[in-house]
Amino acid sequence: MAVSLGVAALLLVACGQSNDGSGTEPAQDGGLFDERIGAEIEDATANGASADQLALLERARGEGEVTIETARQARRAYAECATAAGVEVTFDETTRPDGWVSWVTIVDGSGAANTEQIARDCERREALWVIVLYSTQPATEQATADYLDQQAPVLRSCLEEAGFQPEPDATGMELAILTTRADDPVMRETGVMCLQQIGIDGF
User: Fold this and answer.
1) Cα-based angle 55, 58, 63 (whole degrees, multiple of 5)
2) pTM, whole model, 2 decimals?
3) The three-state (H, E, C) secondary structure of 69-103, written as one string
4) Residue 148 contacts residue 176 (beta carbons within 8 Å)
5) Checking DSSP bridges between strand 88-95 and strand 2-4, what pairing results, if any?
6) ω into residue 26 within 30 of 0, thus cis?
7) What is the C-alpha to C-alpha distance for residues 75 and 199, in angstroms, rounded to an integer?
8) Nearest CA to 158 among 138, 131, 178, 134?
9) Contact predicate 11/176, CB 8 Å
10) What is the pLDDT of residues 99-129, one digit of tens each?
């Protein structure tokens, strides 16, 4: 079973690291991030996050962002938790052309009836709040919007070549969202192709 990271909310994965993978920029909106991570730590504390996950959240608060390194550490703990319960969890990472990282989570329990529950429990305990915050923090959202705006001409051209006519002033994000129209099978197929042209899989 493969589960795509919530790219529709953040896009690839997507997912607080810099464009060159260093995890040092772009800068967060400090006030927004501080408010958000405080709420996430409170929620995680009340809802079963492990001490290790809480420590990662506190590290992120000190650094002013959730870096890809922090997200990977949380994912490793998630996988180790699942392995101990007999379920294999792996992550297929994708690096967008601008350097941003997302991943698909692959869960394999060899047919065990409680595979998904084990995976969910381990994710909650070891990784959930870290990876959600990584994916939706202000730096991620801004980087995604910026990247889609840069790639808007490619998306527009691809959609138009397939016979669709987007609004002339549609932003890159609006064009990307247009490709996910669930009520139009042709649009969905075209949208996947158009997004793949700009290095996006799983929006």
Assistant:
1) 125
2) 0.73
3) HHHHHHHHHHHHHHHHCCCEEEEEEEECCCCCEEE
4) yes
5) unpaired
6) yes
7) 23
8) 178
9) yes
10) 788 898 999 977 667 999 999 999 999 999 9
